[in-house]
Write a structure and sequence with these properties.
With 539 residues, this protein is of the alpha+beta class. It has helices at residues 2-13, 44-50, 63-76, 78-156, 168-189, 239-242, 245-257, and strands spanning 33-35, 40-42, 56-58, 209-211, 214-216, 267-270, 280-283, 289-293, 296-301, 304-305, 316-319, 325-328, 334-338, 344-349, 356-363, 366-379, 382-394, 400-409, 412-419, 424-430, 437-444, 449-455, 469-474, 480-484, 489-493, 499-504, 513-519, 522-527, 530-535. Strands 6-29-28-27 form a four-stranded antiparallel beta sheet, with no helix packed on it. A four-stranded antiparallel beta sheet has the order 7-8-9-10, with no helix packed on it. Helix 4 (78-156) packs antiparallel against helix 5 (168-189).
């Protein structure tokens, strides 16, 4: 009798589900409604999301339809077949994950190794720059010490009783030397010492989620398996129908990562760490450029410095439309031309024994060359200098079309020139202050050269004592762009050489900007052994 009672109870338990009828999409809700269109059960929250305008009924009223569906599944064994297929896919994905983890582990380790190499290179570069900075400072101090000793000896030999017999120029020269010695000493003593500011930039990368071969930044973590479900027919072969919820997840991912999309510019790339200074940069495409460093002509291809040296001794260059490079040397009287096959040939003989080429530029197929030579004499112990200048215009065949010689007092040396519609803009270096510069716009006529405007700096109470310029170029509107080495910035001057606006500075990671150039509304800025490419908008 007890055995019969037990069998009866077991028979009653068949088909009774031990779990509550919780909605698989809304954990706090229970199944109460049946959708006749989707042949699926749901809760009240599901109606407004996935089953609008569908034919619905109470769950109890769908008893027969639900039992028929279960009968069909058990009879035809579809449910077992589908679950067996799913377990195979899950096992395959597990194997793929093991392989993927090994691959990504290698990628991470490779990236870390490269980061370590870059750190080692950065250490060598910083230590080398530090050594050079302190050696230069010590050399300047030693030179100044010698100057002071020489001046002490010279002054000590002067007899105070014979001062009335000295010429006025001799007295002025001696006093001037003392004042110059005092100001130079103050400048050296007050010169800022090198310091160090660490930048903790060790971002190696991020783990990201991939889908269909694409990588999505900021991917969401994988949800638990209990949440990966959808209201659809369980036995459709289409993966897209089985995982309809992925469509909504993809949209959410795109929306969440849209704020992370950034512009391509600015671009920053490092070149050979042995390069300390780039004196000239001329871009020829978005990724290629010619540069001069340590008086060597080098080339950048795809933002990478090539190992080849195209010319051993170069001071300035200009690029012809056919791709040939005009090469200028300050110790030679002729201009060379670098052909595409890398052969150097003579282009034009422009100088004399007393006049050498210092700068070159090209605009509208007109080549302009600035020649310079300084002479001096010593009268009554006072040095007098005169600069002999000659500006030459020629066509791209090397035929001189115009020449204008002129002389000036002093010894300002030309460093860079720009041929503008308003005149010739010249960047000068002051030889009496070898680190200071000035800019002049010259009105060039057939018989003389007049100074129209001048620029000597913008910062501080005495800006002309602080303007150290490493590069200059011009835009199509005639504005002049200059790099200010001491103030870590690049700014714009108008046609009258008045300060117009600042473009980029230390906030944009500029430290010691030197050579600059424009190409297709983008400005290339050389900074040590780095090159920046910024967008340029002429406002």
């Amino acid at each position: 009798m007890a055995d019969d009672t037990l069998k009866h109870e077991e028979k009653q338990e068949v088909g009774i589900h031990p779990k509550p009828l919780r909605c698989r999409f809304h954990e706090t809700e229970v199944y109460t409604i049946f959708c006749n269109d989707c042949n699926d059960f749901m809760c009240f929250k599901c109606i407004g999301q996935l089953h609008q305008k569908h034919e619905l009924s109470q769950l109890q009223d769908a008893d027969e339809a639900i039992r028929i569906e279960m009968f069909g599944l058990l009879l035809e064994n579809k449910y077992a077949e589908h679950l067996s297929s799913l377990i195979d896919k899950v096992l395959d994905r597990g194997k793929e994950l093991v392989q993927d983890e090994e691959t990504i582990t290698r990628e991470i380790r490779t990236s870390v190794d490269k980061m370590k190499q870059n750190i080692d290179l950065a250490e060598k570069r910083l230590l080398s720059e530090l050594r050079n900075a302190f050696e230069s400072y010590q050399t300047s101090l030693q030179e100044q010490k010698s100057n002071i000793n020489n001046l002490q000896t010279e002054i000590a030999n002067l007899d105070v009783d014979k001062v009335p017999e000295f010429s006025l120029s001799h007295i002025i020269n001696s006093l001037s030397e003392m004042k110059l010695c005092s100001s130079t000493s103050d400048k050296l003593l007050n010169h800022p010492k090198p310091g160090f500011q660490p930048k903790m930039e060790f971002s190696i990368g991020n783990l990201i989620e991939t889908r269909s071969g694409k990588r999505d930044a900021g991917a969401l973590p994988l949800q638990s398996s209990s949440n990966i479900s959808t209201q659809t027919d369980y036995f459709e072969d289409s993966d897209t129908e089985w995982f309809d919820a992925e469509d909504f997840e993809e949209d959410d991912l795109i929306e969440s990562s849209s704020d992370e999309i950034t512009n391509e510019y600015p671009i920053k790339f490092q070149i050979n760490p042995d390069i300390k200074l780039i004196s000239k940069i001329v871009p020829i495409s978005e990724k290629n450029a010619w540069i001069i460093s340590n008086r060597k002509l080098l080339k950048i291809v795809d933002h990478t410095l090539q190992e080849d040296v195209y010319a051993e001794t170069v001071d300035d260059i200009a690029i012809l439309k056919d791709g040939c490079v005009l090469v200028l040397r300050r110790d030679k009287t002729f201009i060379m031309k670098l052909l595409p096959n890398r052969k150097l040939v003579r282009f034009a003989d422009v100088g004399t024994i007393n006049n050498f080429p210092y700068c070159i530029c090209i605009r509208d197929n007109i080549v302009v060359i600035y020649l310079w030579y300084v002479t001096g004499s010593n009268q009554y112990g006072y040095a007098c200098y005169t600069s002999r200048n000659n500006i030459i215009w020629m066509n791209t065949d090397g035929i001189v079309t115009k020449s204008l010689p002129f002389s000036e007092s002093g010894r300002t040396r030309p460093c860079s020139i720009q041929n503008l519609e308003s005149g010739l803009c010249v960047l000068y270096r002051l030889d009496i202050e070898p680190y200071l510069h000035s800019i002049e716009l010259l009105e060039v006529k057939s018989d003389k050269c007049n100074k129209l405007y001048g620029f000597k700096g913008i910062y501080g109470m005495n800006p002309k004592r602080n303007f150290e310029c490493g590069g200059m170029c011009a835009d199509n509107a005639g504005n002049i762009l200059v790099s200010d080495y001491r103030h870590h910035s690049v700014y714009v001057l108008d046609k009258e050489l008045k300060y117009k606006s600042k473009l980029y500075d230390s906030k944009n990671e500029l430290d010691k900007p030197t050579a600059i150039s424009l190409l297709n509304d983008h400005i290339w800025v050389a900074d040590g052994n780095q090159i920046f490419i910024f967008p340029y908008v002429n406002e």
